[in-house]
Amino acid sequence: MSKPNPFFRGSELPRLLVLLVILIFGLVYFWHVLSDRDVPAVEPVVRADDPPRPVVPDQAPEFESVTDKTPVGLRDMAAYVTLLKRVEATSPDALAGKGRRDVLYAHLWDNPAHSRGVPVHLLGTAFRSIRYESKKSRTGWLHEAWVVTTDSHPNPYVCIFEDPPKGFPLGAAISERVVFDGYFLKLMAYEARDVRRAAPLLIGR
After folding, report:
1. Which of 53, 68, 185, 75 minimizes the C-alpha distance to 119?
2. Interatomic CA distance for residues 65 and 79, integer angstroms
3. Taking the model in full, what pTM does it have?
4. How confident is the model over 61-101, as pLDDT tens digits?
5. Which segments within 85-140 are labelled E, that is strand?
6. Which domains occur in the chain, in start order?
7. What are the tens digits of pLDDT across the range 120-135?
8. DSSP string across 131-175
């Protein structure tokens, strides 16, 4: 009568140990990557019975020539640069605290002049991300992310910023959960499948 085979043969045990070590290192690496990513926190909810805050557009002269539903042009440049400098002078926490959570896509679309220069808070998904050289930026580069939110889908916001988060992807087809706080400049015209459309343009971080 032969003895039953042990559960693990001697030749298999080293391979199992190697696989176990690889698994452990993989889990540690995965946890490290996730811990380095900026994961959006739970968003505070704006309640209907909260005291409403008035929306006050920026009345500075730089904003008087801004034109909606056109591409970004010379008439928009003074306000564009003003907002870039305003973002640079504002800490991320301060800008996040100013961002209006009760100003939605419909408000910007229906009455853009009423929200000109107003800081807006977005939580959404970036599906396109590009960067380009710009003399307007202190870094020499500007980043542009196209973002859809729950209230805007399928229509995008265009978000302009100088300092991308660590590991933020570039590409024409990405899917990245983002939080963005930025000042509303205008409804920017763009071409989509030979049809002219417009999207709210925000400058922030």
Report:
1. 185
2. 9
3. 0.79
4. 999 999 999 999 999 999 999 999 999 999 999 999 999 99
5. 119-133
6. 63-204 (2.40.50)
7. 999 999 999 999 999 9
8. EEE-TTSTTSEEEEEEEEETTTTTSPEEEEESSPPTT---BSS--
